[in-house]
Amino acid sequence: MKANKFLTLFFGMIAALAIVSCVQDDDFNIPSSFGDEENEKLEALIASSTVISIAEAKAMYEEGEFIDPVDTEIYIKGYVSSSDRTGNFFKEFFIQDSPTNPTTAIKVVLNLVDTYNKYNVGREVYVNLNGLYIGEERVGNGVITIGGGTETDQYGTTVTQLSSNQTQNKVLRSTVTEEMVPLEVSFSQISGAHVGLLVKVNGVEFEDSLEGERYFDSEQDFDTRRTLQACDGFDYSNFQLETSAFASFKYELLPTANGAITAVVNKTFDGASLVLALNDLDGVNFTDTRCSLLNIEDFSVVLEEDFESMPTGTTVSGNGWTAYAEEGNYNWRVLNSSDNQNNTNIASMGAYNSGTPVNIAWLISPAIDLDAQDLEFVSFESSNSFSDDSELELLISTDWDGNQANIATATWSALPGTIVGDSTHYQDWVGSGLISLSEYSGNVYIAFKYVGGDNSGSNAPSTGTIDGTFEIDNFRVLVEN
């Protein structure tokens, strides 16, 4: 009897050691190779179907068409950017189109937990779209999603989770796991186009009032949003970090230092706001001293334009400004607006009713001498009216000679200022933030380039609405005293 008890205890200890050696701290080994069955499915998919980009797949829904679940023999390839290892994501993951310098991502919803064991961050994943649907997981949230079916209620049609069989047969892994290099952005640069992408924002910190708080507020039921801030000249730029009630790190204290955050761009449940969502706390690297704002008293305004001295209803002119219609007849005009600071003049450009399918119009500042001082910033405010797919670009040139005929041939580089988004209410104005010009020298010009068109006629593009309006006001150049 004693011998039997000893052997039972001995073999029990061996079994326990075997289990412990396989699993440490709930971190399971990620498989690097698969059985013949999964490899054969992937090889068959690649051989029999046509690959399309994630952007092309998303556009199929944006044009109002679901993928035909019967006849479409296409697939997409992407790299997993999100992880449910800590519980901050649930029954979903994003795949982006490249492990470096990604441009777009799409969500996959599935009836599976602990997906990080199979679809780990960086894993190369192929999704067979035949028989699946592309749409929104929740009506109106704007997050384009792959699902296994659809359901319709009074609000519209949404996609539903992939079943276990659909996941096994349609969402196939290769043996490749790439190192994911987060896309470096500023708060002002993050837009809806970044949803699902792994990004990195430098020089950020939690706002001052959050000292002593934790990632999750125990008085809330589902998600907690904490405000991140970054010094942006004389003021802070802000963004929200959202943490789930099921995140394993939810009760960790928020760090008080400054540094870099690496997270996935997501949307709130209702789709109303963009947020950042952590895969884990390894994405929070706050070890630097908190940032300090610039003092406005140390700067002077050397150029200011509020368009008040220009007659309304006419093309923008005077004070060294240039308005140029590169294509189409419509140009930047001075209008009076009751929305911005009580009946003030603004510069406005829109293609509505222009009668031409393409409208390109430039609004260019006077020359700015950057050699006269060491530190310069530019700022402005922008608003829109149903801008839709029309665009407004903020550009700078160091080689334009001031001649309208040479605008299109001069070298123009993008500046990182915030421009109003289409989702902003048409009566609201958005500040650009302080845009540093310190990397430039000599005489420079700042340009607002409008690209749109009247697509209401028979010769107009077949998709999108590009006849929206953009408005500019309170343009300033500030220099250090």
Automatic annotation (TrEMBL):
Residues 1-18 form the signal peptide. InterPro entries: DUF5017, DUF5689. Keywords: Signal. Pfam families: DUF5017, DUF5689. Residues 50-282 form the DUF5689 domain. It comes from the Bacteria. Gene3D superfamilies: 2.60.120.200. Residues 373-466 form the DUF5017 domain. This is DUF5689 domain-containing protein. It comes from Mangrovimonas yunxiaonensis.
